[in-house]
């Protein structure tokens, strides 16, 4: 990191367009932020293919955009590393981790948004 700036940030940006069949087409872009997870109706969990640099580190942000289609009942989960790096409680000093997050998200497939 050669930047003289002392403040950096991560960013994830999503835009949504409703489709005629009730699904949603999302365009997601991540800059230094964990890529969103897509929870399918059957419980399968996929990762959006978007990656990029932290905002404020380089003169220009470099990021990729992925398009994800969600059918009715499917979810796009935006999260921070505060979840995957959480420790304590029954985990002791072990981090929660992305594998646990994927399993937990998959177990919630089909639940209403308020659950």
Description:
13% of the residues are buried. Strand 3 and strand 4 (45-47) form a beta hairpin. With 115 residues, this protein is α+β, with helices and mostly antiparallel strands. The protein has one domain (11-107). Helices cover 13% and strands 28% of the residues. The termini are far apart. The strands form 2 sheets. A 3-stranded antiparallel sheet has the order 1-2-5, with no helix packed on it. A 3-stranded antiparallel sheet has the order 4-3-6, with helices on one face.
Percentage of β-strand residues: 25-35%
Structural class: alpha+beta
Helix percentage: 10-25%
**How many helices in DSSP terms?**
2
Secondary-structure element pattern, one letter each: EEEEEEHH
Main sheet properties: 3 strands, antiparallel
Radius of gyration: 16 Å
Mean of pLDDT: 91
Q: What spatial form do the alpha-carbon principal axes imply?
A: flat
Could you state the oligomeric state of the chains shown? single chain
Taking the alpha carbons of the first and last residues, their distance comes to 41 Å
Low-confidence stretches: none
Cross-sheet strand order for the largest sheet: 1-2-5
Number of strands: 6
